[in-house]
């Protein structure tokens, strides 16, 4: 096996690892608790843009449940990163602006992970590459 082919495979596995671990962490820590406890979350969710608790929670669930599932599968990865990045930036810069770097470190790390995926794309070990040539760069 020549070195460039090995490098390509390592890069694809690295992107797969980044997609799956980042997606699972966001889904497990933030998305599923919101989805499984909607009524309780409606009472405590911050609404910085005064859209209403229902709309704000549905937008958060979209970004923290559906988008990570798309990213894990490798479908529309770059597009799915955008709502996640929006929610993370709003949380870190608006809702929790008083947090120190230590307090917000998980959010900042997720921001780094999903910005990296936005830049790099899903890699070749993604469903969109296998099944839909039109979505190759999504």
UniProtKB/TrEMBL annotation:
The keyword Cell membrane applies. One of its GO terms (cellular component) is plasma membrane. The keyword Transmembrane applies. It holds the Pfam family DoxX. It is found in: Cell membrane. It is a multi-pass membrane protein. The chain crosses the membrane at residues 12-31, 51-72, 79-99, 105-127. Keywords: Cell membrane, Membrane, Transmembrane, Transmembrane helix. Belongs to the DoxX family. This is DoxX. It comes from Pseudomonas mandelii JR-1.
């Amino acid at each position: 096996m020549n070195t460039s082919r090995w490098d390509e495979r390592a890069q694809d596995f690295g992107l797969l690892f980044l997609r799956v671990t980042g997606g699972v962490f966001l889904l497990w820590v933030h998305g599923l608790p919101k989805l499984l406890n909607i009524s309780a979350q409606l009472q405590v969710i911050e609404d910085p843009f005064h859209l209403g608790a229902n709309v704000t929670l549905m937008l958060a669930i979209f970004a923290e449940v559906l988008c990570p599932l798309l990213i894990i599968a490798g479908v529309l990865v770059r597009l799915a990163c955008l709502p996640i990045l929006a929610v993370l930036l709003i949380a870190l810069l608006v809702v929790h602006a008083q947090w120190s770097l230590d307090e917000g470190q998980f959010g900042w790390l997720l921001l780094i992970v999903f910005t990296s995926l936005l830049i790099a794309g899903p890699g070749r070990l993604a469903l969109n590459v296998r099944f839909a040539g039109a979505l190759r760069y999504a």
